[in-house]
Amino acid sequence: MKLINNPDKSQWAEILKRPVMNTENLFDTVREIIDRVRAEGDRAVLEMEAKFDKVELTSLAVTEAELKEAETLVDEKLKEAIRLAKQNIETFHAAQRFEGKKVETMPGVTCWQKAVAIEKVGLYIPGGTAPLFSTVLMLAVPAKIAGCREIVLCTPPDREGRVHPAILFAAQVAGVNRIFKAGGVQAIASMAYGTESVPKVYKIFGPGNQYVTAAKQLVSLRDVAIDMPAGPSEVEVLADETADPIFVAADLLSQAEHGVDSQAMLITTSEALQQAVKAEVERQLELLPRKEIAEKSLANSKLIVVKDMEEALELTNEYAPEHLIVETADYMQVAERVVNAGSVFLGSLSPESAGDYASGTNHTLPTNGYAKAYSGVSLDSFIRKITFQEIRPEGMKNIGPAIEEMAANEHLDAHKNAVTVRLGKLKIEN
Fold first, then answer.
1. Which residues bind NAD(+) (predicted)?
2. Could you tell me if 322 and 234 are in contact, meaning their C-beta atoms sit under 8 angstroms apart?
3. Are 236 and 131 members of one domain?
């Protein structure tokens, strides 16, 4: 990890650079796959599965028999953990239910909003180096609470054509309707346009590699909505001299093992902590099964010392981390001043792993600085808010003249007339 001490503000932009993920140069390749799936449906998806996932499938759908078998293959302790996580995620997201209030903006004019679920949503769950059954819970549980009518899940199978049993178990627990064996670009295209097997959805959620990210970007240009822009995962620890270097190092490494392009940052007011964390990262790294991945990720990572907490917060808000862990003596006061972050973990006993799995908050979060403008996935991600209004005679008399005046000055006479004819009728009736 790079050690940086008291950087000048002119250096901040360079220091805070993320690993580059340039999806634009993949667009031609990705578009070709999307077009084939759009034109040929299941046949193209099956061919792409053979080509990219090295598996010969006869059909895409996961069967009832496979779902039942998965339940027998998952260890009871893991089942209990998944159920506990599901319960906490459900509790937290259910508390986000929208309650629309009717507002009388003036006598006779009433406006309100109604929350309506997105009817069909698609969830993409990567296979890759780890089975992300936790992401199944993070996406399917709020979708179910929102009332989405159809929850479709795509995930790549292994070379024997099987989906990891923990993914299938989590999908059943969370309420997924249909599961398909498809990975990568072909999975995104299937959900965006529909095939003989995979239904077309209205919004696609879930993480993935750079090809999946490029595919989501392309299909979202006009055909389907997506959850948010995404890049490699990241964590920042904001710490003072009271932080435990063992905890800080563990938090940095928990992010680094995600992937070679992940980034872990320490911003601290203590040079002694910086040095202790460096030594502790090196010690703990040797014990990790995913050492090789974490080691490459650490090349993108930095341990930064700044002069005071004021500067530490300014640098943090400029970085806008996906995950922010605040390990300071006065962490609640520090947290009040955080304005750009995806999810914040407070105090020495709140590791990022808690949010990744079981505390209840969502782990699908904005990366690559998008926390300055985007929220993480929440119940709102699965609903739309429709506005309603009712104008009664008193209301039309009250606002009608103002509407006529505004429409006339925008030279939209038909707009004006839509009000004028109503006011005329009300005048006759009275």
1. 124, 186, 209
2. yes
3. no
